[in-house]
């Protein structure tokens, strides 16, 4: 157990230490300063020329938003088309998989375009290698790039002194892909393939087992996809059971590398905020707040898993660690750390089955997604955190009786209204969706999509909608989710949960960008203070707790008391 | 209209770069630098593919070490876990049945001796490992079936035991069932190679 804990601590420290220089480097990329990847400039310029992009053209928030939405619509439509005609593409399809059913294609195209990677299909039995690479791996880059670019636009909006130009979305998207995601993914793909993550184009192979049977083994070009799935907070695995599969995550070293990759960019973007606006102390305070929640949640989850299943004691077993859905080579601590990492950062890959975690551990994963701003997804995580920040500044301002100002700009009715609507959107999507599903099950108990009875069944439905709304992508996979009901409802939830929380904060940034800065005085609210940190943390926890507590009580908490 | 043209162009070009060129290059590079690992560490015996080092196999006959229960019967073309929740009565029954089966085939051991991973299914359904303790409780059955000494088997398990990464990170004291069984088939005496 001791080495399991030291392993987890190493993963966390390594992520934070690597995130600092990466955060600094990303600011260089955003601002177009020279860096060691400048040799890629000809490639990037060729892309700009071919597409007709003028990279130096500054755009205001509305122009950027239009560009972001149109590009994402193009991604979505192309992905939907390619999935629908998969069977006709003879290239990279050694197992001869056919076309996708329309609602599954809709759900999956929405899922990968929105950086969610909720998977209602199983990779090794549905998706051709062409689909895995040219659709999924491609979208894992550009959807992550979209999030990072949006975050860079937000930074510029906060930095501006009365200019409406936030930068150029196209340029930021391409450069995020070529200069941040591509090098990191390439390094990780190589590390993984050296450890035994499969990387070839062979179809299903048959092995003659020692006992004289036959074992069918699916392989494929998994390493490059797994690398970007982790680096880009995507989470969609090559194989059905994701990174529990020995071909995705062969040993403890690969597990460390993947877990660090999950946390890396989300952590780095918090530091980037500090470097971009020269508010390092504030960025460190944000990082500290997030890490406080992160470490507490990971500790609680690991403790619950190690404490295990009391039913095992009743059966007479000496150990009762909860090993259901876990791998021996990772153990409970690394499984819990990964679970909290993947749900905090809206990644969604798993190295243990979340459905089989003990109720409180599963509840923590849910809570991570309900908050959705502990480091958060690449780009969008910090954007979500920014919304909480606006609300907290407003409330703190009310408490001390001053006009609230954020980073030298006055917050007025318009900004606070937008922030409040975005904060409410998340519970609305999750609770309304869960309510509809729970009603469906009540009306027709034969629907048959629940694997577990009782309170846990409720958790399964709530988890699915939380995962969709938070653009996470992990699941309580006991849910039989490949039905038109789940495909359509979660598909729409993912789209709303992705684009509205990008549009709203960018609108705030757009309106802050043109405001005249007010000089900071002794009377203005100091953000880098313990008091404000406490207000911010309370806002985050109260919003999550108040809006979701009743639902959590029906799911994981009730489940815990029946254990 | 100009924006629409840009969007379509951008989608097409990024697909070619990140969806085709990047993965093809990485697969090529991996196969160039480390072909055995990129192939998933296949294991051949007398020229025939008998499995992959990290992909668990179903074992349930007396002369072999048994691995963990699998929700998919070790089918490596349709993998997955049980997704059963700890509180589910059906799950508890399943665990009880596994305990009963183990007790039946391993006379002399008690419920308390059974490590928990031997009665729970892994997430992938392909977990290649069990703990040292889980291998030890099977020694008597295998020794009887193969007519070899228990001492030799214990030594074999010891040789195959993995340490934590760098001695400090992650779980230790577990063995790869397939490699252990390959060593058994090769003859216990010649099984002195390193576990890697």
Describe the structure in brief.
By secondary structure, chain A is mainly alpha-helical. Chain A is built from 18 helices and four strands.
Low-confidence stretches of chain A: none
Estimated share of beta-strand residues of chain B: 5-15%
Average predicted local confidence, pLDDT of chain B = 92
Which oligomerization state do the chains in this entry correspond to?
heterodimer
Q: How many domain regions of chain B?
A: 2
Order of helices and strands of chain B: HHEEHEHHHEH
Question: Can you give a write-up of this model?
Answer:
The complex is a heterodimer of chains A (563) and B (196). Chain A has 563 residues and is mainly alpha-helical. Chain A has helices spanning 2-31, 41-51, 61-84, 102-113, 123-126, 129-159, 169-195, 222-231, 252-277, 280-307, 310-315, 331-344, 359-371, 380-400, 413-443, 454-469, 484-513, 530-562, and strands at 205-208, 214-217, 405-406, 409-410. Chain A has a two-stranded antiparallel ribbon with strand order 1-2. In chain A, strands 3-4 form a two-stranded antiparallel ribbon. In chain A, helix 9 (252-277) packs antiparallel against helix 10 (280-307) and helix 16 packs antiparallel against helix 18 (530-562). The longest helix of chain A is centred in the C-terminal third of the chain and has 33 residues, at 530-562. In chain A, 61% of the residues are buried. Chain B is extended, with a radius of gyration of 22 Å. Chain B has helices at residues 2-33, 35-38, 89-105, 132-136, 139-146, 150-160, 177-186; strands at 42-45, 48-52, 129-131, 174-176. In chain B, the strands form 2 sheets. In chain B, strands 1-2 form a two-stranded antiparallel sheet. Chain B has a two-stranded antiparallel sheet with strand order 3-4. With 196 residues, chain B is mainly α. The model of chain B is unreliable at 189-196 (pLDDT under 50). Chain B has 2 domains: 1-39; 40-190, no CATH class. Chain B contains 7 helices and 4 strands. At the A-B interface, helix 1, helix 2, helix 3, helix 6 and helix 7 of A face helix 1, strand 2, helix 3, strand 3 and helix 7 of B.
């Amino acid at each position: 157990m001791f080495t399991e804990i030291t392993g987890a601590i190493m993963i966390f420290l390594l992520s934070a230490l690597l995130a600092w220089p990466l955060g600094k480097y990303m600011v260089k990329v955003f601002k177009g300063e020279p860096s060691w990847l400048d040799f890629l400039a000809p490639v990037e310029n060729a892309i700009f020329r071919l597409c007709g992009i003028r990279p130096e053209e500054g755009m205001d928030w509305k122009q950027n938003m239009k560009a972001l939405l149109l590009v994402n619509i193009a991604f979505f439509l192309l992905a939907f088309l390619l999935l629908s005609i998969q069977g006709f593409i003879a290239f990279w399809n050694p197992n001869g998989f056919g076309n996708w059913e329309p609602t599954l294609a809709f759900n999956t195209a929405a899922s990968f375009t929105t950086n969610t990677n909720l998977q209602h299909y199983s990779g090794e039995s549905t998706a051709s290698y062409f689909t895995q690479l040219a659709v999924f791996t491609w979208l894992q880059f550009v959807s992550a790039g979209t999030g990072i670019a949006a975050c860079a636009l937000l930074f510029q909006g906060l930095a501006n002194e009365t200019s409406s130009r936030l930068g150029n979305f196209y340029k930021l998207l391409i450069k995020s892909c070529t200069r941040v995601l591509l090098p990191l993914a390439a390094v990780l793909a190589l590390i993984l393939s050296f450890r035994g993550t499969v990387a070839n184009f062979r179809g299903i192979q048959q092995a003659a087992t020692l006992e004289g049977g036959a074992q069918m083994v699916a392989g494929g070009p998994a390493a490059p996809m797994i690398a970007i799935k982790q680096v880009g907070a995507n989470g969609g695995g090559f194989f059905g059971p994701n990174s529990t599969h020995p071909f995705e995550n062969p040993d403890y070293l690969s597990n460390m590398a993947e877990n660090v990759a999950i946390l890396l960019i989300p952590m780095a973007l918090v530091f980037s905020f500090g470097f971009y606006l020269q508010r390092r102390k504030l960025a460190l305070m944000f990082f500290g707040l997030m890490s406080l929640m992160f470490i507490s949640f990971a500790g609680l989850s690991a403790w619950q898993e190690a404490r295990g299943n009391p039913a095992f004691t009743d059966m007479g077993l000496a150990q009762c660690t909860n090993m259901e859905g876990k791998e021996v080579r990772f153990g409970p601590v690394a499984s819990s750390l990964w679970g909290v990492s993947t749900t905090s950062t809206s990644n969604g890959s798993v190295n243990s089955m979340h459905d089989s975690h003990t109720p409180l551990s599963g509840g923590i994963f849910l809570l991570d997604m309900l908050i959705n701003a502990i480091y958060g997804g690449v780009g969008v995580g910090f954007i979500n955190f920014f919304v909480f920040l606006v609300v907290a500044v407003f409330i703190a301002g009310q408490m001390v009786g001053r006009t609230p100002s954020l980073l030298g700009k006055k917050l007025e009715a318009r900004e606070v209204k937008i922030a409040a609507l975005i904060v409410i959107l998340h519970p609305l999507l999750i609770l309304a969706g869960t309510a509809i599903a729970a009603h469906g099950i009540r009306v027709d108990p034969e629907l048959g999509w629940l694997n577990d009875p009782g309170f846990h069944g409720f958790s399964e439905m709530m988890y699915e909608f939380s995962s969709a709304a938070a653009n996470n992508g992990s699941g309580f996979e006991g849910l039989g989710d490949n039905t038109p009901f789940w495909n359509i409802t979660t598909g729409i939830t993912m789209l709303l949960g992705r684009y509205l929380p990008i549009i709203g904060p960018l609108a705030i940034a757009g309106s802050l960008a043109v405001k005249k800065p007010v000089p900071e005085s002794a009377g203005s609210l100091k953000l880098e203070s313990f008091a404000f940190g406490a207000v911010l943390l309370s806002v985050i926890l109260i919003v999550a707790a108040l809006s979701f507590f009743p639902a959590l009580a029906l799911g994981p908490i009730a489940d815990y008391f029946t254990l | 209209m100009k924006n629409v043209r840009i969007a379509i162009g951008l989608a097409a070009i990024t697909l070619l770069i990140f969806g085709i060129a990047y993965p093809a290059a990485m697969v090529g590079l991996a196969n160039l630098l480390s072909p055995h690992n990129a192939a998933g560490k296949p294991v051949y015996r007398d020229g025939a593919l008998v499995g992959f080092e990290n992909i668990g196999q179903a074992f349930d006959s007396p002369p072999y070490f048994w691995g963990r229960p699998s929700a998919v019967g070790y089918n490596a073309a349709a993998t997955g876990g049980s997704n059963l929740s700890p509180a589910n009565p059906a799950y508890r029954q399943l665990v009880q049945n596994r305990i009963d089966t183990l007790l039946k085939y391993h006379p002399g051991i008690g419920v308390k001796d059974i490590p928990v991973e031997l009665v729970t299914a892994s997430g992938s359904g392909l977990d290649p490992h069990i703990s040292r303790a889980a291998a030890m409780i099977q020694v008597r059955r295998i020794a009887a079936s193969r007519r070899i000494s228990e001492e030799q088997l214990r030594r074999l398990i010891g040789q195959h035991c993995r340490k934590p990464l760098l001695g400090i990170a992650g779980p230790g004291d577990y063995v790869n069932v397939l490699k252990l069984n390959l060593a058994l088939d090769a003859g216990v005496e010649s099984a002195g190679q390193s576990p890697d």
